[in-house]
């Protein structure tokens, strides 16, 4: 009968072991291990007492030991934990373990412990793979959103510093860095446009002195360059559009070098930065063409009126003198009719040059339209402006033009804001730029009517 009972117990323990159950008689030191434990190359002796804890992963051991000890002290109804166990071959397996003390003595000391282990290694691998896929999907979504944001910035902003700052902010969401600098190639010289975390003067000058060769090499190679100096790491990324290098992006950080994914993402963002610089440069050229008269090289009428209004307003509020000059080439239609429009163009180009040479750099000079030119002379009284204008008139009269017989002359009208000696702001009538030009035009008309080739100042209301 005893043998039969022992056989039944043996059968039952084998069955239970195969389904993951283990049994420990803590009083007698007997029991059996489960199939999972034995398939890892361990025996029941390895399960006894605290020997099993030595095989738990160091990162899990403290947590597992604490939860197991609490249950053995009777503080919890059961033990339940997931952890890694080292197999005899050195590999790690994940177990989901549950157990409980089935019997205690009168003092509460555990006598019998029964538990169940499930190998969840494959499940955890799948869970890790799913978590990795989810994380990658989030990163790709963030990358797509950052790229979309960078693209929106490039489309909406034609101001290079603003666009650069916004694109760099999008880049920082994806690639951690300490500082970023975006430099534009301008007439074969690198010029700082903007960035993040930099002091424009100190950091830029220091970088140029240290890494000019690396930056230029990156531009020539049209590919990224890495510089690792101890714990300090730099990435130089050329900004290329339509096959031409327009600048360079420099990222710097400490600790981890730039490689792999960060470099790939930075290359994408570099395309947007290159496009931003290219668009801003094109816009600047177009704006310059709109503001500069291509024949005379002076400001256009529109640009003169926009800037002139603020100069007139400043004169009124500050109490400083201001004179407006309006010049017209005498008998210009006759010059075009007699010598042809190329000669007329030659005269306009020459007059633009003479006005720049005669007037000051602080004076606002423009081609007002056709053969008319205008200028604003800040901090200049009308008396002094008469001297300047007459000098300009005389210079034109002395100038010889190829293929033109006789002299070419100009008539000039002046109108000014002459504040009283006190110089108190607002003590004279406030004029607009249009009103000053109208007064100068009346003076010019008088110069034309009284013989041309003269300077006339505004004399009355």
What does the model show?
With 461 residues, this protein is an alpha+beta fold. It has 13 helices and 15 strands. The strands form 3 sheets. Strands 2-1-5-4-3 form a 5-stranded antiparallel beta sheet. A 5-stranded antiparallel beta sheet has the order 7-6-10-9-8. A hairpin with a 5-residue loop joins strand 3 and strand 4. The longest helix has 36 residues. It is rod-shaped and about 135 Å long. The protein starts with a helix and ends with a strand. About 2% of the residues have low confidence.
What number of structural domains do the residues give? 3
What is the assigned CATH homologous superfamily of the largest domain?
A: GAF domain
From N to C, what is the helix and strand string? Answer: HEEHHHEEEHHEEHEEEHHEHHEEHEHE
- Order of strands in the sheet with most strands: 2-1-5-4-3
* Portion in helices: 40-55%
Shape: rod-shaped
- Which architecture of the largest domain would the CATH scheme give at its second level? 2-Layer Sandwich
Report the CATH topology name of the largest domain.
Answer: Beta-Lactamase
Give the helix tally: 13
Q: Please report the total strand number as a whole number.
A: 15
| N-C termini distance | 138 Å
Fraction in beta strands? 15-25%
Radius of gyration: 44 Å
Overall pLDDT confidence: 82
CATH top-level class of the largest domain: Alpha Beta
Largest sheet: 5 strands, antiparallel
Structural class: alpha+beta
